[in-house]
Amino acid sequence: MMLVFLDIDGVMAPAKSWQRPDMLEDGFVEFSAKATRVLQDLLDQFTDSTIILTTSHKSRFSLSQWRAIFERRGLRVHEIKSLNDNTDFQSRKDEILNWLDLNDIQEDFIIIDDDKSLNDLPKFYKDRLVLTNTLIGLNEGHWAQIQAIVNTEVNLSLVNNP
After folding, report:
1. Domain extent for 59
2. Are 120 and 96 spatial neighbours (Cβ–Cβ below 8 Å)?
3. CB 114: neighbour CB atoms within 10 A?
């Protein structure tokens, strides 16, 4: 089992301020083909994986709508969850740490995001982070890092006590 904390802008869809992203019929941006391939390869490795949406768009759609968004973009997702709504404007780092603190996870995890606040994660969590370049997004260049993370046994007793 694998939890995949996943951002969208700057990960699945490169965020270029000078270029408007392509929108699909469901009203959401098209994912890059490279990001889709890399994420699907990870999901194929862990068929019982759960995506936990960290994106600022997480509240725009219901979880069933998110499932349809991923499927329309060619991604087969076992389960989708989301961080809580960020009503108190926490940093992404604090959002993820709070979610982990509130949920008793018993599975391995990886964080895929472009948010630079995640550089301040405690080392235990930062070691599970793939930090993408906002302008490029997730791509095959991240595959070796992803494999290094998922092939390193995680000590789950450290999740709430890093």
Report:
1. 2-153
2. no
3. 22
Task: Determine how many CB atoms are found less than 10 A away from the CB of residue 122.
Answer: 12
Q: What angle do CA 130, 81, 149 make, to 5 degrees?
A: 25
* Distance from C-alpha of 13 to C-alpha of 30, rounded to nearest angstrom: 7
End-to-end CA distance of the chain: 21
pTM: 0.91
72 found inside a domain:
yes
Sheet bearing 50-53, strands edge to edge: 79-82, 50-53, 2-6, 108-113, 129-131
The CATH number assigned to the domain holding 88 equals 3.40.50
> 161 lies in a domain?
no
**pLDDT by residue (tens digit) across 69-108?**
999 999 999 999 999 777 678 889 999 999 988 887 878 9
Q: Is residue 123 part of a domain?
A: yes
Domain count across the chain: 1
Q: What residue spans of 56-131 are helical by DSSP H?
A: 63-72, 92-102, 123-126
Q: Residue 24 corresponds to which tokens in the numbers above?
A: 């699909």
Name residue 89's beta-bridge partners: none
Q: Which residues pair with 38 in a beta bridge?
A: none
